[in-house]
Design goal:
Blueprint lengths: L4 H10 L3 H16 L1 E8 L3 H4 L10 E3 L2 H9 L7 H8 L4 E2 H6 L5 H5 L7 E8 L5 E8 L9 H20 L8 H11 L4 H5 L1
Antiparallel strand pairs: 1-2, 1-5, 3-4, 4-5
């Protein structure tokens, strides 16, 4: 699935369901760029957003099962520099840069055995400056100088739309009794007076 950045933005803007949006973006990344690991996480209120994955840090997570099991079993969260970059860094970083750091990154070295030799860690910000991030991994195309900016732009477009959809979720309507109770609370009435 090769789509231009313009086509991607148009399609993302058309989608109104968060699950459908995640599915579309994962498909574009997989088929167009050889991505076999996609993890999108929001690090402000993880419990609220963890809807499309069993991954403890993600909203959406697609990766080789063997790698997911290994990652969790070895508690790689505590030493994964790429994951830490999503939470605390700015600007995207290639996985190779984490391997080249002094001492190397054990997680980034180990992941290559699972067919994930290249990738990007892309920190993002949502409404209210809630930190989020997208981790993608796969073949070397991901880190190519002419592809990386496109993936970064797509990540920003996707996250902005996901954030927008999340803010549009309908809140349940309040009943007449609930509205009356709120009115009395707003007037400073005590619980016992309101109960009467």
């Amino acid at each position: 699935m090769n789509v231009s950045l313009d086509q991607f933005a148009i399609e993302v803007a058309r989608i109104t369901d968060a699950g459908e949006l995640v599915d579309y973006v994962v498909r574009v990344f997989r088929e167009g760029f050889g991505v076999s690991l996609f993890n999108f996480g929001i690090y402000g209120k993880l419990d609220h957003f963890a809807r499309f994955t069993d991954h403890p840090t993600g909203v959406a997570s697609v990766m080789p099962v063997e790698w997911a099991e290994r990652y969790l079993a070895e508690d790689h969260f505590s030493r994964d520099r790429a994951f830490a970059h999503l939470q605390f860094g700015n600007g995207s970083r290639c996985w190779t840069s984490f391997r080249e750091e002094e001492g190397g990154d054990v997680v980034m070295q180990e992941v290559t055995a699972f067919g994930l030799s290249h990738g990007l860690a892309i920190p993002l910000f949502g409404s209210g400056y809630v930190k989020a991030g997208i981790m993608i991994g796969g073949d070397k195309l991901i880190e190519a100088a002419d592809v990386r900016p496109i993936l970064e732009a797509m990540a920003v477009i996707f996250h902005a739309r996901f954030d927008q959809i999340g803010r549009q979720v309908e809140r349940p309507a309040l009943s007449a009794l609930q509205l009356e109770i709120l009115k009395w609370m707003g007037q400073g009435k005590s619980k016992s007076v309101i109960a009467e």
